[in-house]
Amino acid sequence: MISIIIPTFNEAENVKIIVPKLTQMLKDSDISGEILIVDDNSPDGTAGAALELAERYPVKVHVRYAEKGLSKAVIEGFERAEGDICVVMDADLSHPVEQVPEMITPILNDQCDVTVGSRYVEGGGFDRFPLHRKWISKGAGLLAKGVTRISDPTSGFMAVRKKLLEGVRLDPLGWKIVLEVVVKTNPRIVEVPIVFTDRKEGQSKLDFRAQIDYVHHLWRLYNHRYPSQFEFIKFCLVGLSGFFVDTAVLVCLVHFYLFDPRLAAVFAFLIAVCWNYVLDRVWTFNSGRKTRISYSYPSFVMICLAGLGIRIGVMHLLIAYAGMGKSPWYVLASVIGIFVATFFNFLGSKYIAFSTRFHKS
């Protein structure tokens, strides 16, 4: 048995078309299946239209009142699905109904765990699709190359073996559930060529907010796939922000309060360290309540001081023994020292200051 999950918002006219088409397809293909309409309380009466169809067709309707979003609606569909294979498709008829059998066959034959309808493999393409939307689709796919090799990660047309989703925490942002499933489950994948058709009724959900959500979602997926690398990137960004805090405090103390620059530098360093500590605790390493401030803060300060010593030590070695004491080589020596110290600070912060191995709240 298969479950066809269709998330909807303001698709009253389209569900009246797609449900009979899907029912006929199931009958013609001799496939046992159910159609799940998961609606986000559409003001145009989508849920009511679907409930009327349920009197004649194998349709189940679930209306969500609290939470919104296409991907989250699909996840609720996964939870309610009774089929062994879940097919996800749009209500706007952009995904070809007649290709559902081709989407599930490779899974039934145990060739893969997931199939994705692709517009970019041989046999796939577009029908009546605006050029700017094609460029957006291509660009979105390129941005996702670091987390998946599929050619069309934004297609939205997918079939997945339901058992694959057991125990997997899906937490998508926006509307690209295919990416979330593919990255989080790391499945065997077959791409099925489809011809994508632009919607006939209703309005596209691809607005500027959806595009921002996609970029944010990608950031989270890259973070999931490459956690240590992204921690290091965030650590460096926090360090860069700390540099500006350090400089701003130094200038203010010297310019407005007439501090001696050397004394001002000490205060600037301490404030910047506090700034970095807070950001690294809540953002970079997300340790939060997992670590005690009474341990992590002193440890972080000592690591930063040791990092400062390493920076100066590296500079000294390069200036004294590599002849980098003259301009502009001393600047390069400083940069190398900062680079080495940054790695030291990151490793010390990750594995000592913010590690739950040494302290728990």
Give the tally of structural domains: 2
Q: Which class best fits the helix and strand makeup?
A: alpha/beta
Any low-confidence stretches, pLDDT <50, length ≥5?
none
> And the CATH topology of the largest domain?
Spore Coat Polysaccharide Biosynthesis Protein SpsA, Chain A
CATH superfamily of the largest domain: Spore Coat Polysaccharide Biosynthesis Protein SpsA, Chain A
Strand order of the largest sheet: 3-2-1-4-7-5-8
Largest sheet: 7 strands, mixed
Secondary-structure element order, as H and E? EHEHEHEHEEHEHEEHHHHH
CATH architecture of the largest domain: Alpha-Beta Complex
CATH class of the largest domain: Alpha Beta
Counting H and I runs of at least 4 residues, what is the number of helices?
A: 11
- CA distance, first residue to last residue: 48 Å
Q: If you average the pLDDT, what whole number results?
A: 90
C-alpha-based Rg, rounded: 27 Å
